[in-house]
Write a structure and sequence with these properties.
The complex is a heterodimer of chains A (about 250) and B (about 280). With about 250 residues, chain A is an alpha/beta fold. Chain A has 9 helices and 10 strands. In chain A, the strands form 2 sheets. Chain A has a 6-stranded mixed sheet with strand order 6-7-8-3-9-10, sandwiched between helices. In chain A, strands 2-1-4-5 form a 4-stranded antiparallel sheet, with helices on one face. The radius of gyration of chain A is 18 Å and the shape is globular. In chain B, helix 8 packs antiparallel against helix 10. Chain B is flat, with a radius of gyration of 26 Å. The chains are: A alpha/beta (about 250), B mainly alpha (about 280). At the A-B interface, helix 2, helix 3 and helix 5 of A face helix 7 and helix 8 of B.
Chain lengths: ~250, ~280
């Protein structure tokens, strides 16, 4: 297992604010993530977890606040947002694989058009990743022929293949049948071992407890509590966190 | 019992289905034949049938006018090729303009929408007259004398682009926004996500509708004859005047039907294939 590098944060977010049609979803959230660290974003539906992740990937425009990636401010005006997004992988609850492309082409697409890799190199990287998740023999299949678990693992690999500095997982197991959740969690464990820095919004509390180093509990757009994963789960401080955890017991 | 053995109940179901199918096929065949017989009898027993037969279905006239009408069809085919290509290009530009959300492009979007409204509403024949007689009327020296088939192609492009733009727009809007979101989140630019993710899916979805418009265009290329271009219809008209017999029109009509059949079949096949893909596993 790779050690967390505490010397300087991979991601630093300060005072992130976002509203939709006048409704404040994020009311000033701060975040610090160190290389190799896994941070779990917890909270009930509507607490702002997804919005937070989308803001960090810049697919959602900030209303206020600043974000730094490896010390570079990515929220400054005039930044190349496409370049930032390729460096901050985002995986969705609903997979969103490209329906007209085989899973191999799904993984290859951004390698070729964003990272400008040769077709052969992109193929090699994509194939290696598909092999690693046991889908090498299905490389030429289209997404609709795959199970939800296989699609979601492909979607994760599609983001990871770009070798991002940070991987954001937005409730990646919520749309899956219970028996398919395990294979996706297995892949995330595998990524943790290889040192991927991850921020994940999740409802899988047992899993968060197992793999996360740090837990952030969001409640109505603010951080209600945060701390070491083990400490948060066994000894929550706030009433909101206690209530939230008791609902899942 | 082995798996390959069929149960009594299933056998009975098969027998019943077969007998029902036989019955409906028989009914359909008999009613078709009966209807055709009645129609044929009504036609040949009408008082003017022998005159109509002589002036519309005259074999020698058909044979003699064949080369000229076929020659004219060649012009229709060329116009069809150029018009289809330019329609696809213009329509795609219009569709992209109408679906863009960028506020900077609002004037262009309104312009494109206005264009589509205008040309979808105007009868093609009016557009043909306006372009065919209006543009030469401007007497722009640089253009010289523009052949009528070129003006016809321009008019067809103007009108059909408006229809096809709407087809493309429907296709683009049918691709779920999450596909574009996924593309952008991977670092693809706006243009790349449209070109590589949205459009390929959009075009696939509207392929049958596009083919339909192509079939319509195949027939409408015959309308350039009103500008004096000697296409199949115009050539037929000349032969009609020459032989004082309407058979060349029938011939020109047959040519267009023969031209359309492969496209129509291809369209059907595409539509069936796509609906199969979308509703796999249902009985209805």
């Amino acid at each position: 297992m790779t050690e967390i590098d505490w010397s300087k944060p991979r991601l630093l977010a300060k005072n992130i604010r976002k509203s939709f049609e006048g409704r404040q979803v994020l009311k000033g959230v701060d975040l610090e993530v160190y290389p190799g660290q896994i941070v779990a974003l917890l909270g009930s539906s509507g607490s702002g977890k997804s919005t937070m992740l989308r803001c960090l990937n810049l697919v959602e425009e900030l209303e206020d606040g600043q974000i730094w990636l490896d010390g570079d401010e990515i929220s400054r005006p005039g930044v190349n947002e496409d370049e930032v997004r390729a460096n901050v992988g985002l995986v969705f609850q609903s997979f969103n694989l490209f329906a007209h492309l085989s899973i191999l082409e799904n993984v290859k697409l951004a390698l070729k058009v964003v990272q400008k890799k040769e077709d052969r190199e992109a193929s090699e990287i994509a194939k290696n990743w598909l092999e690693r998740i046991g889908l090498g023999d299905k490389a030429n299949q289209f997404p609709d022929k795959l199970s939800g678990g296989q699609q979601q693992r492909t979607a994760i690999v599609r983001a990871v293949a770009l070798n991002p500095k940070l991987l954001l997982l937005d409730e990646v197991t919520s749309a899956l049948d219970p028996e398919l959740v395990g294979e996706v969690l297995e892949l995330i464990r595998d990524l943790k071992v290889s040192g991927t820095t991850i921020v994940m919004a999740t409802h899988e509390l047992a899993f968060a407890r197992e793999v996360a180093d740090w837990v952030i509990f969001l409640d109505q757009g603010v951080i209600a509590e945060e701390g070491e994963a083990a400490e948060f789960f066994s000894n929550p401080k706030t009433d909101r966190a206690k209530e939230f955890l008791s609902r899942f017991k | 019992m082995s798996q390959s053995q069929i149960s009594e109940a299933q056998l009975a179901r098969h027998t019943w289905q077969r007998s029902r199918k036989r019955k409906s096929t028989l009914t359909a065949a008999i009613s078709t034949i009966a209807f055709a017989a009645v129609a044929w009898f009504a036609l040949v027993s009408s008082p003017g049938w022998s005159r109509v037969k002589a002036s519309f279905f005259d074999w020698p006239t058909l044979v003699q006018s064949f080369p000229q009408v076929l020659d004219g069809l060649w012009l229709n085919l060329r116009v069809l090729v150029f018009a289809s290509i330019s329609v696809l290009i213009v329509a795609m530009v219009l569709a992209l303009l109408t679906t863009l959300r960028n506020p900077v492009l609002t004037p262009l979007r309104l312009l494109a929408k206005g264009y589509i409204d205008l040309f979808r509403g105007t009868p093609l024949i009016i557009v043909l007259y306006l372009v065919g007689f209006g543009i030469p009327g401007l007497r722009i020296e640089a253009f010289g004398r523009i052949p009528p088939e070129v003006l016809g192609t321009v008019a067809l492009t103007l009108t059909y682009s408006a229809y096809v733009a709407e087809v493309f727009r429907a296709g683009i809007e049918s691709v779920h926004p999450s596909q574009r979101l996924a593309a952008r989140s991977l670092g693809l630019s706006y243009g790349q996500s449209i070109r590589l993710v949205v459009l390929p899916q959009a075009i696939r979805k509207v392929a049958p509708a596009l083919m339909n418009d192509f079939v319509a265009l195949q027939k409408d290329v015959g309308l350039i004859s009103v500008l004096g271009a000697v296409d199949a219809v115009r050539a037929a008209q000349i032969q009609v005047a020459h032989f004082a017999n309407f058979t060349p029109y029938i011939l020109a009509g047959l040519f267009f039907v023969v031209l359309a059949i492969p496209t129509v079949r291809l369209t059907d096949w595409l539509a069936v294939r796509m609906s199969k893909r979308e509703q796999m596993g249902t009985a209805l």
